[in-house]
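Structure representation.

___
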Amino acid sequence: MPKKKKDKKHTHKPKAPKAPTAAKPLVLSTIKAMGKEASLRNIFPPLIKKLSQADIVLALNELDRAGIIQIGQKGVIKVLGDVPAHKVRSTARSRSGGKALSGTIDITRSGSAFVKVEGLEKDVFIPPRAVHSAMQGDEVKIQLTQAGRRPEGEVIGILRRAQDSFTGRIEVLEKFAFFIADERKLNSDVFVPLTALNGAKNDDRVIARITDWNTGNKNPIGEVVEVLHKEKGNDYDMKLILIQNGFSIDFPHEVYRELEKYTEQIPPAEVKKRLDFRKVLTFTIDPEDAKDFDDAISFRQLANGHFEVGVHIADVSYFVTENSALDKEAEKRATSVYLPDRVCPMLPEKLSNLLCSLRPHEDKLTYAAIFEMDAQFNVTHQTIARTIINSDRRFTYEQAQEVLETGKGDYVKELQTLNRMAKNLREKRFKNGAIAFEKDEVKFKLDESGKPLGVFLKVRKEAHLLVEDFMLMANEAVAKFGARLNKGKPPLPFVYRIHDRPDPERLAQFSAVAARFGYSLHFDNETDIAATFNGMLKKVEGKPEQHVIETLAIRSMSKASYTTNNIGHYGLAMEYYTHFTSPIRRYPDVMVHRLLTHILDHSDGMVVKEELEARCKNSSMMERKAMDAEREAVKYKQIEYLQDKVGEEYEGIISGVIMKGVFVELIENKCEGMVSVELLGDEDFAFDEKMIRLTGMRSKRRFELGGKIKVKILSADLALRRIDMALAE
């Protein structure tokens, strides 16, 4: 917008707001006039006539920090006494005497909290007055105020918020508004300027985002992201699942402002920096409903008779520059979240679906791993480089699979050759000790409102495996390139995807469970673990127990994570492995692209390992949160699907056993529910934790992992998020 010219005849300085210190006596006297306790909403009406909203908030924060008042749960204010702030702070300092520590905070119902600190035997106790603005699950910095057998501390900083969006109710008054959150995580009401209501009216249910926690971190300021016109329903519940797992459903304003400068035009100077593959046959293979195409494969036969395969990946780092608003938001989210009826993207749609997406017949900037292969599909040469491509064709997995099966269609010879290459890569990988851990996904057929009409398993066929094999090949090549093997130089800090060796106890437990299905597994020899797993997974293919066995097998293994400290990837049998191929939906891949730029541009010494490791840690944590959200959403859809099937009977397999009952996965649709121990029979049951089973004290009937069972659906309760079952007999 053009700036308005100043009218020199009528210019005037705006009235300066009162300093918070000057506002404190009036705020304190107003609180005291209401008795020993007051509420934020009660004190605002008389004060707003004399002070600005900002002055009131700042004064309240200063009084709270000084220990004169305490602002507790739901905005209740208590007057504690007129103790000068400097005395409160100096007392805390004199008791601490130690360095600042960090950890994740766990807040109790009473308002006190505990922080688990790595290296300390006991969790650090945080009294309510010292929790300040910290919320459940936040990563916080604390100062010890008391050491010894019962360490005590105070929150002195927030390193990372676990959640910044909440559902709740808006209360609109004459000159300001309050947001009252549903969750106890947020222990005070949020001030919302009237300019940030986004159409919300008094008493509306809304989703609000915290935009400023203020200096004192007690009374945050926020904005309304969305008005929830329907309080219930699957749209609301899906959004709630995302929010409660720490994912925002919208992007901050500064991200959208930053996006405005980007266009689809590629500067000629940028094109000159890259290997030009625009005239080389290139195509993408993705799910039918995908819009964010972040990988493409190029293919051509060279003059020497060799084949050249290029794995080209969207160059997200060209647009998402380090420390920009886009980068900070992407780092915070760390991953896209894929729910049954929606995607919560890591990057805004303009980037993920337009500028970065490798759409057909459009010039796109990419990073690539390019492989030259001989007639026996051995790699004779490889290159890591920045490229520019123009995709010739967009295949869905189904379309590519049809070409492979029928031998008819676009680029049939090229696809068939690539498929033979992929099979060769797969055979070599398994021969080296890789484990075939990729179970089929539960998918839903949804109507227009998102209600499931059917449940099915997405079966992985040759087209899926073809893409997967080349992506794995590229990831390994990039990890080796990043480690600067055979360069005669010490490696720079790099991002690795690691997977540790399995725990022997877990393997023994899984072996016992598999035996109940008739599979004899022996893990005595460490070198035979992969072959043992692969043999069993092949035998179980197509059997009713396949999904349960695959799930339990994955649980028996260690979890993969991101780090700068490489220990290799056990499950893939790779000494060097990273994630390079999905930067539109994974932040570690963006980090890897930037590191490749440092290496290619010979910018040694510009990477700080500690910063990189912190980002790796956050990405690993957000990946687990995304998986939790995805599991919750699948469970929700399963419950929704079974709501009109109460009373029907199904064959199932016991997928879990606890003291309170058994979990049963239905063979037909993979929905999982619980049979309470009270409904297993008219007797007491003993729970064997080691053998994971319940045994009837009188009948000696056993309910154990893997057992087949027939059940009847008793209820499918969306409010409680549970499916209750009973024995069908």
In short: Residues 259-431+444-485+585-602+626-632 form one domain.
